[in-house]
Amino acid sequence: MKTSIATVSISGNLREKLEAIAAAGFDGIEIFEQDFIAHDGSPKEVGAMVRDHGLEIMLFQPFRDFETLPEPFRGKAFDRAERKFEVMQELGTDLVLICSSVHPKALGGIDRAADDLAELGERAAKRDLRIGYEALAWGRHVNDHRDAWEIVRRADHSNVGLIVDSFHTLGRKLDPNSLRSVPGDKIFFVQLADAPAIDMDLLYWSRHFRNMPGEGDLDVTGFMQAVMATGYSGPISLEIFNDMFRGGNTRQLARDGYRSLIDLMDQVARAEPELSLSTPPVPAPQSPDGVAFIEFATRGKEAEALQSLLEQLGFTLTGTHRNKAVSLWQQGETRIVLNKETEGHAASSWNARGTNVCDIGISVQDAADVITRAEKLGDNPFGQPLGPGEASIPAIKGLAGSVLHFMNAETAVQEVWQSEFVASNTEPGNAGLTRIDHIAQTMSYEDMLSWSLFYSTLFEMKKSAMVDVVDPDGIVRSQALETMDGKFRITLNGADTHRTLAGAFLSETFGASVQHIAFATDDIFETLQTLIGNGFKPLPISSNYYADLEARFVIDPELLKRMKSMNVLYDEDESGSFFQCYSEMTGFGVFFEIVQRQIDYAGYGGANAPFRIAAQKRMVRPKGVPAT
Ligand code: MG
Ligand code: MG
Q1: What confidence tens digit (pLDDT) does each residue in 149-200 have?
Q2: Distance from the CA of 322 to the center of ligand 1, in angstroms?
Q3: Which residues share a beta bridge with 474?
Q4: Fewer CB within 10 Å: C terminus or N terminus of the chain?
């Protein structure tokens, strides 16, 4: 199945777009008239430039306000079409999209529209061109793909077909299954877009808020299943209008688009295997069993500070790498690796960002399959030269320079931890931190969709709704991705401005992503008692917080007192309750969190985030300003 993207979907000038689209792996493009009207070159040159990039022009779009016009408008519309046909021939494409008319003079009438299309089809046929008719959701008389199909059916011309667009069907809440009765060879082209569920004017929603399949809330998979059921075998193409994308990173957007199409077709194949798609099989997305390890690139004073914080948190040094300046810190099955190497990935990550999380290890059932899936989705494998006796842990490059390793939890102990590290005489710590509950990653708001698409397509993970977290200096958008069983959880925090805590972290670390790591405990008070005994200092929470808590929830006064004394925050949802406590902020902007989920509490204490941020901001004062 060929993949395509409308040039209008991404930012850049035409040449930048083509380079990014070709590099992402697409077979072709839909060319938008505006794109080459603005380009300095004839349609013939544009066509050659597209082909030089190894791309095909699969569709020329759009041709508007054509059908059911009275004379003299009708004649003029045909003249306009002939001129477009000439441009298409120069460009080297044979298919044009005609979208249903919004012309105030359009008369309507299914047969009148069919007659117009049949006549235009006849003219197109003389030039070996084809026309595809699309129902715009806001078309004046035709705004439903079923009516568009009836017009195409009655036009009864081999050069006239239907073009369907998931946005126009799903945006109007039309049942995509009504497409299943259209013959596949009469669907000439399929355009795809998703969109967030926002109740607003259809035209405005479409022009500004469309996004890649999987990034929004529309059932694009269900739509595509219906299309595939018809026997359709033409290209699938992205047509996305999104303000953020127009100003975004061209290459990343193209990669996201390609990724979304591969994942979409994989989902279709899994939902209805009978449709026997011709796309090569992609290994199924796995549900990770958790975080296998977190690796920090660190040096000098920051490394010392990080080590002593880990000790306070109850971690012990259980191993030292045979060949490298790398140490392993452990508590139960939670592993933290400190990498002080001066060469390789960790070193370059440290050079760019100072102390930061440079690698994340993820426990999966089949690491090789995860890599294959990642590569099909367009990710790049990661590798660096191995020293003697070092195992190659399958890895890919994630977003923002991060590296993700995949390992099977059982075999990793033997192959990596026991064979590469010289064991110290210390047992893993046991202060009560049982595992990593979640990793919180920060990115700029405009990159958030890329991150959530990355995780939700690579793994079997569900997305929570996006929530706004109020920072005293701005809003941070927050969204969680988690496996169905909750064993692997990531929270994404999208910062708009560098004045927010998340935004300052981004700018000060030059785009590091992991800002905090949350450990789980079964008894937060007992654990904290031990940690505080080790010298751990919880982030001080204002007493106003506890007064507010008392007003919001029914809490035993003794419990409240205990929480207050240990700076523990509290939350509840319909399934359970939640305790959390934060470390103070390290000098390199990372902090730790300790959480206790009671029963099936599903959240992350989002309601407490503003209090946490305020407390952190009180501690991080500009130099020279004394704390009061
Ligand atoms: Mg369209
Ligand atoms: Mg958290």
Answers
A1: 999 999 999 999 999 999 999 999 999 999 999 999 999 999 999 999 888 8
A2: 58
A3: 471
A4: C
Domain boundaries, the chain: 3-271, 290-423, 435-620
Distance CA 236, CA 181 (A): 19
Q: Are 254 and 208 in contact (CB under 8 A)?
A: no
Tens-place pLDDT, residues 527-551: 999 999 999 999 999 999 999 999 9
Q: How many Cβ atoms are within 10 Å of 480's Cβ, its own excluded?
A: 22
- For residue 64, give the ligand nearest its CA: 1
Q: Which residue has the tokens 């469309």?
A: 210
**Closest listed ligand to the CA of 595:** 2
Ligand 2 center from residue 580 Cα (angstroms): 8
d(CA 393, CA 190): 40
In the reported structure, the alpha carbon of residue 598 is separated from the centroid of ligand 1 by a whole-number distance in angstroms of 48
| Ligand number with the minimum distance to the CA of 613 | 2
Question: 606: CA distance to ligand 2 center in Å?
Answer: 8
Q: Which of 85-99, 417-431, 588-602 has the lowest mean pLDDT?
A: 417-431
* Ion ligand 1 residue ranges (Cβ < 5 Å): 165, 191, 239
* Ligand positioned closest to the Cα atom of 578: 2
Q: pLDDT digit string (tens) for 487-529?
A: 999 999 999 888 888 888 888 888 789 999 999 999 999 999 9
What angle do helix axes 250-271 and 14-24 make, rounded to 10 degrees? 40
Ligand 1 centre to CA of 199 (Å) is 20
Give burial (CB, 10 Å; 0-12/13-18/19+) of 535: exposed
How far does residue 335's CA lie from ligand 1's centre (Å)? Answer: 49
Residue identified by tokens 């592993």 is: 335
- Superfamily in which the 435-620 domain is placed by CATH: 2,3-Dihydroxybiphenyl 1,2-Dioxygenase, domain 1 (3.10.180.10)
**Residue 183 to residue 181: CA distance in whole angstroms:** 6
Domains 290-423 and 435-620 share a fold: yes
Please determine, for residue 413, whether its predicted confidence score (pLDDT) is greater than 80: no
Pick the CATH number of 3-271 from 1.10.10.10, 3.30.70.20, 3.20.20.150, 3.40.50.620: 3.20.20.150
Q: Which ligand is nearest to the CA of 135?
A: 1
Lowest-confidence region among 212-216, 280-284, 386-390: 386-390
Looking at residue 40, its pLDDT comes to 82
| DSSP character string of 354-414 | SSEEEEEEEE-S-HHHHHHHHHHTTPPEE--PPPTT-----EEE-STT-EEEEE-HHHHII
> Regarding the domain delimited by 290-423, which CATH topology (the fold level of the hierarchy) does it fall under?
2,3-Dihydroxybiphenyl 1,2-Dioxygenase; domain 1 (3.10.180)
